[in-house]
């Protein structure tokens, strides 16, 4: 029962996170850099596709350009990967070079 409760809690928290991204209240770059507990085991593709105008094709092209799999979880990303991904999403050249 506890496992089911935890799974539901995570599912609801992720849905809220995706809603915030879709509504413009949060950015994918910010979430990747902060890595909140609800996003730790989330696939990067799921988070990217929660943005407006980001479908599977755009997501694949973007992730291929930085040599990252769609199934990569946010929590398993290194600090360097997080900074590069956030830099590419925001266009921040300094962050990409770090």
TrEMBL record:
Basic and acidic residues compositional bias, start-end: 79-98
Listed name of the protein: Uncharacterized protein
UniProt xrefs under Gene3D superfamilies: 1.10.8.50
Region Disordered: start-end pairs: 77-98
């Amino acid at each position: 029962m506890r496992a089911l409760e935890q799974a539901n809690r995570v599912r609801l928290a992720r849905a809220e996170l995706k809603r915030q991204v879709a509504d413009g209240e949060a950015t994918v770059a910010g979430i990747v850099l902060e890595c909140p507990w609800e996003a730790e085991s989330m696939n990067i593709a799921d988070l990217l596709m929660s943005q407006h105008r980001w479908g599977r094709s755009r997501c694949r092209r973007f992730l291929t350009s930085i040599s990252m799999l769609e199934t990569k979880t946010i929590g398993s990303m290194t600090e360097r990967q997080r900074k590069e991904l956030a830099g590419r999403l925001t266009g921040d050249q300094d962050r990409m070079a770090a």
